[in-house]
């Protein structure tokens, strides 16, 4: 798999062979995890394969929300760094970038506008925000029939909208004229945490797993710009290309339950009932820091679908597909998006429903499935389709490497936590 006529067939496979060479010279008394730690610590992130040009894109700070959503959707990415158009040409990278904009941040910001006035229904409050910025005609269109008591969630404060809500929103001046810089709040001394090319693979893997980063920019300090972006999908592909090599075989051939996976049990999985508003699903993802949630049948633990952060784009790029629904529930959202993708002949893991595995599948099987589907999470189910757990890239990385004591030293110095009142 890793070689073809004696030569690596991909940059990822070449990296795997480099790890293989390093593996062979490690001290024999080291454990497999200690050996792999040493191997990955010896390889700089500058050797990680370059992301495609469509992934290493930047969004201007003066771009509108609509322009940002279109750019993210067209390039099939979840987020992108925002460049300050007012920064001087010789600005350092810290001054050149003001943050990262993502689908989730845009929608959560919109929700925040709709919740500003305490005691007001989300739809009414959002209509008020529209009226303040776009005039009463747009506000009246947005407010028309937005609330549907049939699908009001039992959770206090859950957002609820009818099928016209996002169509009215995306045609409003409020949406078209709001700039990306208006919703980008910096919460660290730098706009985001970045790696330098000299940092190691081990640092990168630990940031993606233990420190829960979704993607990691690599900044060239000389050029003062982002040189590469390492995504979870790229790491999954690297592991898939290495699955038959010696250093990975001892993990890849084991069944999930032999590795202690899934580590997340059913009662800890963030899920959404099929009759809950879909906005509640996205709000849960943002607040809990998860990349997706299973949709379960009412009153049970049987998963009927999955909604991920990337699916949030369908609220903004195809709002017309919900107009027949009195309320955009999780179930209605799944149905509408499946129909939209089928009609437009677009492929998506969402079309085929849940991506699942069993406890007696091997780690290699799971990695190959995740890589082929280009997704970051897989649900473990029993023979009846009931949820038994969840496995993500973080879980897999945590089984093959660990953070040595004091490893990061002062790496995080000056990086502040997100303020409690931050909504983006």
By CATH reckoning, the class of one domain would read Alpha Beta
Number of helices: 18
Quaternary organisation of the protein chains: single chain
Strand order of the largest sheet: 3-4-5
* Main pleated sheet: 3 strands, mixed
Question: What percent of the residues sit in helical stretches (DSSP H or I)?
Answer: 25-40%
The low-confidence parts are: 1-6, 117-123, 129-158, 416-424
Rg from C-alpha positions? 23 Å
Shape: globular
Summarize model confidence as the mean pLDDT.
80
DSSP summary, beta strand count: 13
CATH architecture of one domain: Roll
CATH topology annotation of one domain: CBS-domain
Q: Supply the helix-strand structural class.
A: alpha/beta
User: For the terminal residues, how far apart are their CA atoms?
Assistant: 42 Å
The fraction of residues assigned to DSSP E strands is 5-15%
CATH superfamily of one domain: CBS-domain
């Amino acid at each position: 798999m890793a070689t073809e006529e004696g030569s690596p067939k991909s940059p990822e496979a070449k990296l795997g062979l480099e790890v293989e060479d390093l593996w062979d010279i490690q001290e024999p008394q080291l454990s497999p995890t200690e050996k792999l730690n040493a191997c990955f610590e010896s390889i700089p992130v500058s050797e990680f394969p370059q992301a495609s040009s469509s992934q290493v894109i930047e969004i201007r700070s003066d771009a509108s929300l609509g322009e940002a959503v279109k750019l993210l959707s067209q390039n099939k990415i979840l987020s992108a760094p925002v460049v300050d158009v007012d920064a001087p040409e010789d600005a350092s990278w810290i001054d050149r970038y003001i943050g990262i904009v993502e689908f989730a941040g845009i929608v959560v910001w919109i929700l925040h506008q709709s919740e500003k006035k305490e005691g007001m229904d989300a739809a009414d409050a959002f209509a008020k925000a529209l009226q303040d910025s776009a005039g009463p005609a747009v506000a009246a269109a947005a407010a028309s029939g937005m609330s549907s008591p049939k699908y009001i969630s039992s959770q206090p404060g859950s957002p609820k909208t009818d099928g016209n809500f996002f169509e009215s929103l995306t045609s409003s001046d409020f949406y078209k004229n709001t700039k990306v810089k208006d919703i980008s709040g910096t919460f660290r001394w730098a706009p985001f945490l970045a790696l330098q090319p000299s940092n190691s693979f081990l640092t990168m893997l630990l940031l993606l797993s233990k420190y829960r980063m979704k993607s990691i920019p690599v900044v060239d300090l000389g050029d003062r710009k982002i040189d590469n972006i390492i995504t979870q999908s790229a790491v999954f592909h690297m592991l898939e290309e290495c699955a038959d090599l010696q250093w990975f075989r001892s993990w890849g051939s084991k069944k999930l339950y032999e590795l202690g996976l899934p580590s997340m049990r059913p009662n800890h999985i963030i899920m959404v009932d099929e009759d809950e508003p879909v906005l509640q699903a996205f709000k849960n993802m943002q607040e809990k820091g998860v990349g997706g949630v299973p949709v379960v049948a009412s009153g049970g633990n049987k998963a009927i679908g999955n909604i991920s952060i990337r699916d949030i784009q369908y609220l903004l790029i195809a709002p017309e597909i919900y107009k027949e629904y009195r309320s955009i529930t999780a179930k209605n959202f799944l149905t509408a998006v499946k129909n939209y993708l089928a009609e437009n002949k677009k492929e998506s893991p969402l079309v085929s429903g849940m991506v699942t595995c069993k406890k007696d599948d091997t780690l290699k099987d799971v990695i190959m499935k995740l890589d082929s589907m280009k997704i970051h999470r897989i649900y473990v189910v029993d023979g009846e389709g009931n949820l038994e757990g969840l496995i993500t890239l973080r879980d897999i990385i945590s089984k093959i490497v660990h953070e040595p004591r004091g490893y990061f030293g002062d790496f995080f110095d000056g990086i502040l936590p997100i303020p409690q009142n931050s909504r983006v």
